[in-house]
Amino acid sequence: MKSVPAAWRWAFVVLVAVVALAVALWPRESGDGAPATPTAASGGGGTVTDAQRDAADLASCPRPHDGASTAAGPLATIDVECLADGSSMAVGKSLAGRPALLNLWAYWCEPCARELPALQQYAGRAGDALTVLTVHSDPDEGKGLARLRDLGVRLPGVQDGSGKVRTAVGAPAVLPVSVLVRADGSIAKVVVRPFDSADDIAATVARELGVDV
């Protein structure tokens, strides 16, 4: 039997290496079905139904209140979608006149899932002294609603898959991130870590915004 030409043997070796590399780099999903490396370019979740919103049972988004000053600061011109009902929310106008904590999260983020219940607990303590608003930062709105439903978190929230809020406040591309906003619309602090508890949130907010609850 004739031996295989050396050039052919090398071609075969190269082919095997290319196939192995392609398999190694092929996109995979993590155990919970979330993209292994989620990005803003991830596919959207399609149309969200009223049934999905009803199942999540979220609190209504904040709206401009009597006596609120004119919207100012980096969020003044940002419009996003309210998760509770799909309506448009003008972030700056709706938050004006009251300190706020905006929590940027996504359905696939496990530290976010551990933090969100603490945020809800803190919001209950804060009452009208401070607005707590969740900001779902992935294009798949349906999965965001389902995650909140499963966690039992009913905080008011908005959908921001294109990252308008993140860009406006200059937050890094990590999650979770909490943005502490003064009553005048200016940014007091961008917190780039998950909170451990409601007490941790309270201490941080008291230090940065002067709201002690």
Q: Any overview of this molecule?
A:
- This protein is α/β, with parallel strands linked by helices and 213 residues long.
- It has one domain: 3-Layer(aba) Sandwich (Glutaredoxin), CATH 3.40.30.
- It contains seven helices and seven strands; from the N terminus they run H-H-E-E-H-E-H-E-H-E-H-E-E-H.
- It has a seven-stranded mixed β-sheet.
- Helix 4 links the parallel strand 3 and strand 4.
- Helix 2 packs parallel to helix 5 and helix 4 packs across helix 7.
- The chain starts with 5 loop residues before the first helix and ends with a helix.
Secondary-structure map:
Blueprint: H1 6-25, H2 50-56, E1 79-82, E2 88-90, H3 91-95, E3 100-105, H4 110-126, E4 131-136, H5 141-151, E5 157-159, H6 164-169, E6 177-181, E7 187-191, H7 198-209
Parallel strand pairs: 3-4, 4-5
Antiparallel strand pairs: 1-2, 1-5, 3-6, 6-7
